[in-house]
């Protein structure tokens, strides 16, 4: 009997657990490629154990020439349900390489044909928030208009309003606008997937994610945001007028002038988001190594149920058929 995505969902954290464990052995060593390469190797080994006809349609990494799954890489045994994945083996690779917090391994999964591919080629402008602002925002609005609209929808004064944004030079003008408004700004070094999740979570203390980031993370985050009942808008960001990039994106099936929402990035109501902590962060604890294994914290969100589960996995490397090969070789 073919196993459904709904039945598989609780076990998909095995993939991100493997990515987190692979990454942890290179945390703090200063080499991003080692972090990514090990995470990809470990997660690929686990993913290929699943009885699925799987395909990784997009993976973070190519933009920076980092180790990654191949685009349209076939995964699984090929014998089960047809599924597609968008994978970020380590969201926050630089943070992990420097031993900093808030690094995770993450993926989104759905039946084939549900995800909008946003290639890891340049940046995409994103906003994410909770359900209060659904249908009220546009990326044609200015930064000030976006903030004021969300604040009004949530009935929050600007003095109590909090924005999370990647700490990047490309965001200088946005930051100036936010400072002028008087809102609180949390600048994060990496990891806008977590930023989108906390912004979409009511009562988290964060009201809005804004800024430009990579494409695969946008689809992964949109899956989580949709599971949480929040909203996300994403559009190609091309301030330098890169004509060649726009043509590459068109060839990859991206409408370069369209604003995608969470329902267009992650279609349907059978969706799974999974993440595991690499280093300690706001969303998840980091991997805790022991003398013969590791403990890993994970989160799984899924539709149609809207279930959000946090879990803790304890591994014993010597007894595990995969980890014994990868770690003890």
Descriptive report:
- The chain is an alpha+beta fold and 329 residues long.
- The chain has 2 domains: 5-113 and 270-326, 2-Layer Sandwich (Fructose-1,6-Bisphosphatase, Chain A, domain 1); 123-265, D-Maltodextrin-Binding Protein, domain 2 (3-Layer(aba) Sandwich).
- It has 11 helices and 14 strands.
- It has helices spanning 5-8, 13-24, 32-47, 93-97, 143-154, 172-181, 192-200, 215-228, 243-251, 262-265, 323-326; strands at residues 52-59, 73-75, 81-91, 104-111, 123-129, 162-166, 184-188, 208-213, 231-237, 260-261, 271-277, 288-289, 293-303, 307-316.
- The strands form 2 sheets. Strands 1, 2, 3, 4, 11, 12, 13 and 14 form an 8-stranded mixed sheet that branches. The chain has a 6-stranded mixed sheet with strand order 7-6-8-5-9-10, sandwiched between helices.
- Strand 13 (293-303) and strand 14 (307-316) form a beta hairpin.
- Helix 2 packs antiparallel against helix 3 (32-47) and helix 7 (192-200) runs parallel beside helix 8 (215-228).
- The longest helix has 16 residues, at 32-47.
- It is globular, with a radius of gyration of 19 Å.
